[in-house]
């Protein structure tokens, strides 16, 4: 049940109980009181009527005593003294005495003298009958000294007394009767005294009868209470004014109470509604709103200055909301922060982007992805891995200025800077690369590099969402990884040269090239100049692209390595070269040099392939040279040593290609069982003009000579270069000076020609 309904019921019940108490307890009490008062009034009236009649009777008796105890009256009844009548009676005596009749009876009880005044009828017979009747009544019982009875003239009041001398000596000589007619005038006089209308009823009663009627109390008072003899009752009615007043008072009181009750009810309900219910409802509505919005920052609005329970409740609720918001903020902070580096995480990037998007036209983006991070972890342990990540985080924080950095993956970071252009992004990217390589050197973590993608993201463009931003970064990083890791690539570069598409196209083309036999091998002779002899050939792959023409291996080999196609290509090269060169090798006593890339060594398929080919043909393993590049030696030394040992076991020779490009130490070279060193063509380029290059090359020749290693000098184009090499070494020569790499047919011509020389 709702509070308002409950309150209504409770208040209504209270009012009903209150009214009920008044109705059943107070009201009867008042009514009883009023009835008592009314009864007192009736009693007073009865007393007053009795007293009035008694006074009337007493005054009549006093007149009677004056007349009956008197020597003259005595004389008159005894001696018939006629002068008594003349001097005392007749005329206006009766009228003055307020009597209607006076009767003198003698000793025998006979009427001695009678006088009647103003009788209702004037016949002599009636008068006679009236007098005789009264005389009889008195003579019959001399004890009855007063009374009211029904005479021929209607009700009359009489008093009688024996007539004696004034000194009350001597015998009684007769009786004197005085009469008053009880007529309207009599009753009026009584009424004037009692102040209440009275009636006279014949039928006599012994006791006073009080009957309570609806609005009045009717009283029947027997006149025997006043007179010795009577056939009459006095009847009068008394209004129950106290009772009536009380009833009226109670009735209007009840109405007033009812009215007050309704006003009280309405006022309590109004107050309760305004002070409690309305505010609770407002709080309820606000809470619903907060629940719907699911916004923990919202609060209940309330007056801080009022301190009642509801305000306290609202304050407490706000405190609960604030506590929840704090908890939420903590959870969010935990959800938005990376525990290891304390950098914001991927979720936070979205937030940051949403915040700066509107305010800046473009955002500079740097994405950092560590190369082969799994290997770093495996090789150097997870502690080192963690240290790398923490170091990068610290460097990013150092460079970020008022930008934003986050860790968005296991080994991926992002750097966002509003309004930065590629010109501002690039130096930071380079510094990061440098920092990382320095750190790797200091901490002995070999091969720790990173791939960095750059982007200048036009943020105001309606379609440029957070997803697009991250998608573009993914594309750049993927691209940079595909085209050789450890590099910095921007999305703009990909867009300009459609770099990405190129790679995709290249992959498809390379697969087709293998199937469609688009590859061809060129051979470049390796010669001994003095005395002149062709000692060997290096097989160099060529791709005859159906549309683009011949594509340089320098362009597609790194991609084939990244795409994992190098093993297939390498297998083809090996088979093709051995098949094409088998005869010439034996015929001209040549060695065949084959290029092997790091991927081929790592995936282990090369050795098995090599053994199977050597078994299939008569090709002597001693005539086969496998070229590995110095930069590849930098990887896993043990793995490389194993590879070389396996080749040696078969009888194959090992050449170190492109010497001087990498940074390997000589002692390191010694730990590999190399047969031949190929000095990179860059050393020869500055010969003979560049003194530094000359000194360098001279030193190298001396060293390798001391170590007893065979040497091939690559890139000899000019005679001066050849002269220099000849002067300082007995190195073999590979270069345009003798021949460019040529197709098989041309090589065959060349061989024939030189043999004939
Ligand atoms: P590389 O192994 O160092 O091959 C020698 C490169 O030097 C060849 O380039 C060759 O044409 C070039 N060259 C030789 N003499 C001279 C010279 O006097 N002057 C100049 N300027 N250049 C000279 P090429 O044929 O374009 O091959 C480039 C690279 O591609 C090779 O470098 C090698 O690393 C790779 N490569 C070629 N064929 C294969 C292959 O079958 N397998 C693998 N894994 N890599 C290959
Ligand atoms: Ca080579
Ligand atoms: Ca080379």
Give a short summary of the structure.
With 757 residues, the chain is of the alpha/beta class.
- Please summarize the sheet with the most strands: 10 strands, mixed
CATH superfamily of the largest domain: EAL domain
- What number is the mean pLDDT? 88
Radius of gyration: 75 Å
The number of distinct helices, counting runs of at least 4 residues, comes to: 26
Count of extended strands: 25
Q: Helicity level, as a percent range?
A: 55-70%
Detailed description of the structure:
The protein has 757 residues and is α/β, with parallel strands linked by helices. It contains 26 helices and 25 strands. The strands form four sheets. Strands 16, 17, 18, 19, 20, 21, 22, 23, 24 and 25 form a ten-stranded mixed beta sheet that branches. Strand 16 (519-529) and strand 17 form a beta hairpin. The chain is rod-shaped and about 230 Å long. The two termini are 121 Å apart. Residues 657-658, 678, 714 line the site of one calcium ion. The site of one calcium ion (CA) has 4 residues, from strand 21.
């Amino acid at each position: 049940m709702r509070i308002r309904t409950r309150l209504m019921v409770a208040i209504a019940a209270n009012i009903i109980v209150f009214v009920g108490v008044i109705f059943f307890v107070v009201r009867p009490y008042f009514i009883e009181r009023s009835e008592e008062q009314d009864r007192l009034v009736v009693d007073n009236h009865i007393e007053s009527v009795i007293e009035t009649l008694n006074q009337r009777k007493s005054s009549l008796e006093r007149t009677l005593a004056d007349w009956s105890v008197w020597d003259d009256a005595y004389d008159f009844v005894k001696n018939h003294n006629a002068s008594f009548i003349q001097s005392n009676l007749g005329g206006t005596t009766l009228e003055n005495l307020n009597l209607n009749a006076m009767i003198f009876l003698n000793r025998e009880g006979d009427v001695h003298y009678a006088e009647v005044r103003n009788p209702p009828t004037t016949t002599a017979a009636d008068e006679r009958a009236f007098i005789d009747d009264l005389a009889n009544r008195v003579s019959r019982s001399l004890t009855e000294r007063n009374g009211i009875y029904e005479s021929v003239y209607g009700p009359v009041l009489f008093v009688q007394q024996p007539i004696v001398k004034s000194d009350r000596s001597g015998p009684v000589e007769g009786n004197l009767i005085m009469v008053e007619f009880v007529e309207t005038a009599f009753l009026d006089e009584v009424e004037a005294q009692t102040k209440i209308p009275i009636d006279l009823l014949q039928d006599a009663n012994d006791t006073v009868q009080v009957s309570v009627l609806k609005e009045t109390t009717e009283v029947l008072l027997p006149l025997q209470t006043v007179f010795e003899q009577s056939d009459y009752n006095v009847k009068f009615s008394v209004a129950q004014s106290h009772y009536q007043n009380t009833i009226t008072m109670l009735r209007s009181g009840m109405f007033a109470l009812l009215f007050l009750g309704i006003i009280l009810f309405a006022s309590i309900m109004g107050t309760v509604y305004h002070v409690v219910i309305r505010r609770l409802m407002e709080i309820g509505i606000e809470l619903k709103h907060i629940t719907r919005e699911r916004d923990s920052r919202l609060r209940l609005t309330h007056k801080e200055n009022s301190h009642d329970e509801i305000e306290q409740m609202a304050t407490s609720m706000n405190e609960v909301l604030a506590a929840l918001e704090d908890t939420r903020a903590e959870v969010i902070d935990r959800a938005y922060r990376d525990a290891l580096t304390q950098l914001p995480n991927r979720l936070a990037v979205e937030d940051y982007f949403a915040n700066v998007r509107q305010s800046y036209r473009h955002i500079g983006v740097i994405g950092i992805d560590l190369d082969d991070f799994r290997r770093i972890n495996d090789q150097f342990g997870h502690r080192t891995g963690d240290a790398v990540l923490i170091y990068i985080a610290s460097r990013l924080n150092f460079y970020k200025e008022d930008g934003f950095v986050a860790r968005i993956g296991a080994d991926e970071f992002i750097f966002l800077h509003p309004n930065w252009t590629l010109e501002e992004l690039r130096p930071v990217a380079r510094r990061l690369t440098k920092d990382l390589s320095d750190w790797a050197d200091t901490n002995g973590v070999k091969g720790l590099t990173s791939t960095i993608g750059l982007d200048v993201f036009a943020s105001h463009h309606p379609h440029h969402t957070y997803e697009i931003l991250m998608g573009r970064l993914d594309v750049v990083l993927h691209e940079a990884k595909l085209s050789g890791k450890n590099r910095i690539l921007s999305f703009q570069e990909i867009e300009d040269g459609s770099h990405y598409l190129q790679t995709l196209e290249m992959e498809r083309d390379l697969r087709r090239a293998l199937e469609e036999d688009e590859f061809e091998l060129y051979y470049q002779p390796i010669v001994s100049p003095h005395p002149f002899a062709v000692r060997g050939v290096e097989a160099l792959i060529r791709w005859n692209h159906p549309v683009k023409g011949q594509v340089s291996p320098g362009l597609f080999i790194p991609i084939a390595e990244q795409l994992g196609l190098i093993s297939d290509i390498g297998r083809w090269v090996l088979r093709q070269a051995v098949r094409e060169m088998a005869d010439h090798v034996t015929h001209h006593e040549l060695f065949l040099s084959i290029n092997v890339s790091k991927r081929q060594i790592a995936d282990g398929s090369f050795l098995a392939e090599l053994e199977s080919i050597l078994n299939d043909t008569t090709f002597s393993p001693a005539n086969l040279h496998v070229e590995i590049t110095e930069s590849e030696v930098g990887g896993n030394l043990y793995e490389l040593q194993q590879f070389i040992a396996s080749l040696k076991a078969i009888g194959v020779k090992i050449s170190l290609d492109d010497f001087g490009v990498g940074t390997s130490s000589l002692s390191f070279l010694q730990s590999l069982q190399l047969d031949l060193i190929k000095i990179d063509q860059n050393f020869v380029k500055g010969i003979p003009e560049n003194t530094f290059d000359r000194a360098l090359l001279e030193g190298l020749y001396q060293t390798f000579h001391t170590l007893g290693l065979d040497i091939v000098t690559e890139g000899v184009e000019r005679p001066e270069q050849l002269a220099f090499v000849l002067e300082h070494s007995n190195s073999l020569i590979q270069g345009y000076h003798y021949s460019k790499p040529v197709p098989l047919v041309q090589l065959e011509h060349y061989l024939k020609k030189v043999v004939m020389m």
